[in-house]
Amino acid sequence: MSKPIKLTDELLERIQDEFVKNVKSMKMFDGKISYTKNFKWDDSENDKAFVTFSPVAFAKMVMLLQQFDNEVAWHGVAYRDEKQGNLFYITDILVYPQLVSGSTVNTDQDKYQEWLYSFDDEVFNNLKMQGHSHVSFSTKPSGVDETHQEKILSQLDDDMFYIFMIWNKKFEHTIKIYDMLNNTLYEDSDITVYIGNEGVDLDAFIKDAKELVKPKYQCYSGQGAYGQTPPANKPATTPATTGSKGGGKPKSKPKEKEKPAIGRGWQGSDYGYGDDEGYDPYEGYISQFAR
Q1: Which domains can be identified in the chain, with CATH numbers?
Q2: What's this model's pTM, rounded to 2 decimal places?
């Protein structure tokens, strides 16, 4: 379930009321009070995020997972959709200078900065995704991973986002999206991953394959292992809903005529990114990638 990143005035009011109510009934055997509060958006079941890889970006990431038996890390060039604020595109994967072992990735800061500054502003300003491989291990973030994520989060402005991914050779993955614009942390089950149709009609390929591949026995199972294409003209849930007394997320979305700071100048029409009439954010996408 998606969670808030920053405490809003409404959330602060809630926690203050709950804190006073709880501590009044506490008994202190050592003169100390310990109080923990977990936050989540009350409307999170209808509040999801969607990540679409270009075919090139996804192929590059798969090759990194297959060809390295040590950990390897990469950046993704990522953009937010202008009209649907919970839809993100990853258009390219770039490997930066690093020293790796079976379970660690370390970066030479001087070489890393030199690498960063070699890109033009369009790429440099949109390196908003960091991913790495855990090879054959669980994709649960390590303490080092969490420290790195916390450091990046502290540097984000209120209109930014950042995507973290950990994959292994089994294609198991852990994903987090820190969406500052909508004050929401999306994690794993809140996120659906798609592969775009740019340059190849993968929907048509799967349709033809299903005509040729027939089950030997009748199968009564439901959705296939690789999911289904979202219904046409049925966009995903919008990123923000009207706040409620129970602490629902306040409404917040990118301005219609002003591009967000992230994704400035990108015109990937194959991803439905632009201002065309009859906009459909899922037109040109293939099936959901298996979890």
Answers
A1: 44-198+226-288 (3.40.140.10)
A2: 0.71
